[in-house]
Structures are given as C-alpha cells and as structure tokens.
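Hi P.,

Sorry for the delay on this. The queue was packed all week, but I finally got your sequence through. Input first:
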Amino acid sequence: MPIPTAQDGPTKTTNDLRSLSRRRLLALAAGGAGTWIAGCRPGRIGKSNLPTPAGAGSRAGSDGGDEFVTARDLGFDTDLPLTPNEAFYVMKRGLVPEIRAEEHRLTIDGLVTRPMTLALNDLRALPQHTLMRTLECIGNDPGGELIGNAVWTGARFADVLALADPLPAGVELHLASVDGFHTGVTTALAQDPESYLVWLMNGVPLPPEHGFPIRCLFPGRYGQKQPKWLSEIHVLDARHRGYYERQGWSDEAAIVANSRIDAPAHRASLEGPIEVRGIAFADASGVARVEVVVDNGPSGDAVLVQAPAPDGPLSWTAWSWTWHDPPPGNHVIRARATDGQGRSQQKQRRSLLGGEAKEGRGEMDRVSVTILG
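Then the structure:
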C-alpha cells in the first residue's frame, strides 16, 4: 500500500518528522513500509504526552476547548486512559470531506425488504449507547502510535439494519463512504451487539477527520474495517472486496495481539527501582496477560488495568511492572502480550526491508536502558 501523496493522503511536515523517534524514521526509510501504510498517520500529540492511568484524561478536540475529560467524566468506572481527539491517529485515503450534518444521508439498499434513505435525526431516534472502544491501524509498527482509545456514542448497527429488514440471503454488507472508500463486512459481524454506528467521540461530535457525522465501529477489527463518513450500505449475497483488500491487505483484518512500552524511554539512563508501563491490545478475546522480559531472562507479569465489561476486551489494556533491583549496566526490556485465546507476541522482528505486514504486526516492542551504578 503506497505512502499517501498530496492527492491521496497527508504529507509530512518538518514538525511531524521531528516528533518521531529514530526507530520510526528507520521504518519509514525502509522502502515505504511502516508508519503511514493503509493511509494512517499519527495524531498531533506524541505518545510521550498521552495520558496514563494516573490522571488519565482526554482534551476533547472537536470544539477546540481545553476541558480535561476522563473516562470517569463520561460515566466509566475506570482510570483507563483516553486518547485526546487531536492525538488520535487518522486513517484516510484523500481529503477530508466537508459534510453538513443536516444534509447527510445514509442509504440502505440491496437485499432488503424496505430500501430506505436515513437522515442523521433518524439514526439519533434509535436507542443510543455509550461505549469505550480502541481503534488501531493495521499498519501500526511494534511500539507504534497508530492506536487510540475513546468513548463513543451511537446506535447499534443491528438496529440500523433492522429498519430496512435484510433478507436471509443478504450475508454481506458493502459499506461505502462519502470520500469513495469502501469495504465489506459480513452481515453477522454488523449484527453483533458490539457493532455500532456512532456520532460522538469523547463526548463531542465526531471531528471531521474522524468521520463526521457518522462512522462504523466493529469489534476486533483493524481500522480499515471501520469506515468513516458512511453514506451507503448495500446488502449482498456474496463477498465484497474493498479498497485495501483489493491491494492484498487482509480481508478479515482481525487484530493481532500487540503491546507498547511507553516508559521508560528508549536509551534512558535511570536509577532503580524502575516502573515499566505501556498499553496492550488484541482482538475481541481481549488481553489476558502482559509479561515484561529483561535481557531474555525470567519474565515478570505486569499489573493490568482494563475497562469494565463489556468494554474491557474491546479497549486497550494499560499495564505496569516494577523492576525493583535492576543491576547497573545496559539492558533490553521487552513486552509480550497474550490474548484471550492464548496467542502470544513473538520476539522475532521483521527486518526493515521485509515489506508491509498486511495481516497486522505482532512482534514484541523493546527499549534499551542504562541503569546507573
């Protein structure tokens, strides 16, 4: 999948490049693979400035205000961090469409009893739900920033589909967006009770770059299966291969267990004890365990902070582990996540020239540190 150009996605500014670590720049240099594959780019805040479970919050970015919003402010009994809207990674294949909410329409047709066109107010009339959900780009590198966690409000996708009454032969949905993007999901996935069509993000209307006025959320899938600016739902009796799937990217797009080390910083010089912390994410089976491995030695199990059910498996897990008596010298710290089906990350990593990982990346993140004597 090509790096976006001025015609098909964002270009990078000097400030964007300065915000990247050396590891991220090396990944970019490797034949175009890595950071902005699948049309993804980081948000405007680096991960070092993102909230942590202690004082976790999000500055709602749609209205430009500075209000500090936490998960608890939005009704969730957890200190799991939210990603500020302006820091949330962006996936797009062209310019952000300019859409007036009162003029936007969603068409549902194909193998349905009642083809129809819905306005935003028709969707808002359905039962509304507020949920926590993490999104991740399929092109996210080990330790990458193309992942974010937010609180969303909208209607269950199944309730939207029920208005048109899909026929039994309608086993696939062709989802199309205002910007020309399209993908396919099974009707069964769309009718999952954890599938939604949403219009609020962290308590405010979706920012334009995140899909205003409506976007999809499907459980356990990478961002390429979560269309923004949704305008058409076509119910089909056969599979639909979407924009990225036709380029060889995964059609299932199921999230591979992954983790990131946010602290300590790479190449930091420290004195013990050391708190190692970060985030982990997986498919709908959730994150069952995070191990911290130092210098290939015995592992330590991290303490996990997860959202309450039913959002826990579908939101990232914050984790932490204390290295109480680190010996002086140079050390390598790795994190290994295991999902709810027992699938663990692997130490082996792709070479920089290894190309794009079109099923998602599951290699362990690592940082090097120096412990002062």
